[in-house]
């Protein structure tokens, strides 16, 4: 069964949100580079790439169901942050909002008995558990470091260990 136009619109909004997330993390990566935090810069760059893959995955699903993804302008993310902690807190907050989006989309798809979309969204619901856990882990670490520069550099080295998925 072909996907409904309202579902295409709903999923297309999320395609835009994934591009925005990518842009946000790219902006955080640029900031971290400027602040001499190469580990955080690398971590955010990889995160930005993952978000592009999410957009691609949604687009592929829309296409497979006979729909056509609707594009919209991508908002400009913030470029200035007070600290690495503030960056990671903003990333965590953003992930919570994205989780909320997927929860609401799943509820709508269930209402419309579009179980193929429910199934496609399930992957994202699972992914969000991981994304929230990771960002909240780094928030906790950065809070522990507080104002100690040595601890911050240690965490930056740990962030640099992240590998491409
Ligand atoms: Fe995402
Ligand atoms: Fe994400």
Structure characterization notes:
With 165 residues, this protein is mainly α. The chain has a single domain (5-159), classed as Ferritin, CATH 1.20.1260. It has 5 helices and no strands. It has helices spanning 5-34, 38-64, 84-111, 115-145, 149-159. α1 runs antiparallel to α2, α2 runs parallel beside α5 (149-159) and α4 (115-145) runs antiparallel to α5. The model has no long low-confidence stretch (mean pLDDT 97). The structure holds fe (ii) ion (2 copies).
Helix/strand layout:
Blueprint: H1 5-34, H2 38-64, H3 84-111, H4 115-145, H5 149-159
The structure holds fe (ii) ion (2 copies).
One fe (ii) ion binds next to helix 3.
What are the salient characteristics of this protein?
mainly alpha; binds fe (ii) ion; single chain; Ferritin
Structural class: mainly alpha
Give the count of helical stretches.
5
Task: Please count the beta strands (DSSP E, at least 2 residues each).
Answer: 0
CATH domain topology: Ferritin
The helical percent reads over 70%
Helix and strand string, N-terminal first?
HHHHH
Q: How many distinct folded domains?
A: 1
CATH class: Mainly Alpha
pLDDT averaged over residues: 97
Radius of gyration: 17 Å
Beta-strand portion reads under 5%
Q: Outline, from the CA principal axes?
A: elongated
Per CATH, the superfamily is Ferritin, core subunit, four-helix bundle
CATH architecture: Up-down Bundle
N- to C-terminal distance: 33 Å
The largest sheet is:
none
């Amino acid at each position: 069964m072909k996907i409904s136009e309202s579902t295409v619109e709903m999923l297309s909004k999320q395609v835009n949100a994934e591009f925005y997330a990518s842009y946000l993390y790219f902006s955080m990566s640029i900031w971290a580079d400027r602040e001499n935090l190469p580990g955080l810069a690398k971590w955010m760059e990889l995160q930005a790439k993952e978000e592009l893959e999410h957009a691609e995955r949604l687009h592929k699903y829309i296409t497979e169901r006979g729909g056509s993804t609707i594009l919209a302008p991508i908002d400009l993310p913030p470029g200035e942050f007070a600290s690495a902690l503030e960056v990671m807190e903003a990333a965590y907050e953003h992930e919570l909002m994205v989780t909320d989006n997927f929860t609401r989309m799943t509820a709508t798809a269930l209402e419309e008995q579009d179980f193929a979309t429910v199934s496609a969204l399930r992957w994202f619901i699972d992914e969000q558990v991981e994304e929230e856990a990771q960002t909240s882990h780094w928030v906790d670490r950065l809070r522990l470091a507080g104002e100690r520069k040595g601890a911050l550099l240690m965490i930056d080295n740990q962030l640099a260990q992240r590998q491409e998925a």
